[in-house]
Predict the structure.
Amino acid sequence: MSCTHVAELPPEPRADSVEGCPECLAVGETGWVHLRKCLTCGHIACCDSSPNRHATAHFHAEAHPVMRSREPGESWRWCYVDNQLV
């Protein structure tokens, strides 16, 4: 199965200077594992290995389908709708 959501993405949101998961930081949490970037709006959020799973929560709240790893040296993208790397 091929993901059609990548072709529908807007130009990637500009680079950001966020150094952590903003939602975790807002409540004093610093236990995120990895960060993800929404390729629709640029929102930064913590991954599913993190206690709060804000990246997946962002997908459910906003229906933005594709996130990219924000970890140094990683460039993979994940489509939540198709449940696959894209």
About this structure: The longest strand covers residues 35-38. The chain has one domain: 22-85. Helices lie at 22-26, 54-62.
